[in-house]
What we know:
Elements: E1 8-12, H1 17-28, E2 32-37, H2 40-50, E3 55-58, H3 64-78, E4 83-86, H4 101-128, E5 132-137, H5 150-170, E6 175-182, H6 188-196, H7 200-207, H8 220-227, E7 238-241
Parallel strand pairs: 1-2, 1-4, 2-3, 4-5, 5-6, 6-7
Helix pairs in contact: 1-8, 3-4, 4-5
Amino acid sequence: MFDLTGRVALITGGNGGLGLGMAKGLQQAGARVAIAGRNRAKAESALAELGPEAIFLETDLADQATCHRLVDECARQLGGLHILINNAGIAVRKAPQDFTEAEWRSVMAVNVDAAFYASQAAHKHMKSAGGGKVINIGSVMSVTANPYAAPYATSKAAIMNMSKALAVAWASDNIQVNAILPGWIDSELTVSARAQVPGLHDAILARVPAGRWGSPRDLAGTAVFLASAASDFVTGASLIVDGGYLARA
């Protein structure tokens, strides 16, 4: 029931970090994978790991039309679309009172708007295929917050509730929509966070019961579950993958 043979998956931000970890998991389960992102150099490295069956679609997810073109191009090249992982995300860190309008809007545009637009575009392809899976990447900050990441936390809370809304709207089309809430994963985003926030590394280790930072491969199994027939009656859910971070008082 976890077999993804014959399925086509598109992962935004799939050319590195969490996205690449999930892309590898889906591919190992049998899916044909398209990774999307802005950085072609990173993508070449990712494709070397994924092999010749995977493709890269260069995009910046700037607006609704761009997101729709991306999804349609994936379906055109790979013969359909069954799985969409909205993983692309950015963060800007500073005190809330210091954010500019442009900074606020840039975080919302990538983290929320692009996920919604790509999901819109995926709907018709999944409905025509008889169903599909949309997986939105939230964060532990979907339910908590830090003083230096107000736009990021707000965007990830929006992702969690957007997943519920789409799940309810598309259940009759046999499209399941769920969110993954990763904890503190060792990635480009958290490397920069550790550089900008003194003491963050040790503070996270002290709170995570698993005693380590997560790795991108820790998301692979959850992504495969939510992309497969094993989760056909799971929709509108948010699965936490954080080594016990949120469970700890």
